[in-house]
Amino acid sequence: MNRQATKWFVMVAVLITAGAVAALSHAAEVNLSLSSAWVRPTLGAGRTTAAYLTITNSGTAADRLVAAEIPHASSVEIHTAGMEDGIMRMRRLEGLDIAPGTTVPLAPGGIHIMVIGLSEPIESGDEVPLTLIFEEAGSLTITATVSLAPPAHAPEPVDPDHMGENMQHHGH
């Protein structure tokens, strides 16, 4: 084989290998589902509440919850609650990793969605759209029932002494 043909052959082989590696790296996929969503009603003149749900990743790749939205709220944040020096404290999370093959409950006393500055009250029996925004899966929306207590199929409240380790946060 002449030198020019050898160079061309090597370049084609490199490109085919690079394409195969890229295809294999994309073979891992995120497959997220949302379930058991509920939101506490606003009380009195209060315009802040919390939302809870279960996130399941039945795919083979991780994803990260980075934001959430509810209509008529000035801010919606991912939070965690836990005991610190005998005092229950909330902290804002910059994101929440959802590992492949896991189910992550957002429940009272643990990770939850804080809904701040609602322009309209929400009352028991209402339904509101809750949109979660993930790095890979993009936006997923679920209808959340407004209730003082979780529906029978909602995640259980979290024991603050046994919080998950898959969260990253900063203080505020």
What are the defining features of this structure?
172 residues; 13% helix; eight-stranded mixed β-barrel; disordered C terminus; 2 domains; mainly beta; Immunoglobulin-like; elongated; 1 helix
Overall, the morphology is: elongated
Low-confidence stretches: 20-25, 159-172
How many extended strands? 10
Mean pLDDT: 82
What is the annotated CATH architecture of the largest domain? Answer: Sandwich
- CATH C-level class of the largest domain is Mainly Beta
H/E element string?
HEEEEEEEEEE
Q: In terms of structural class, how would the helical and strand content be classed?
A: mainly beta
| Annotated CATH topology of the largest domain | Immunoglobulin-like
Whole-number total of structural domains: 2
| Discrete helix count | 1
User: What kind of sheet is the major sheet?
Assistant: 8 strands, mixed, barrel
Radius of gyration over C-alpha positions, nearest whole angstrom: 22 Å
CATH superfamily of the largest domain: PCu(A)C copper chaperone
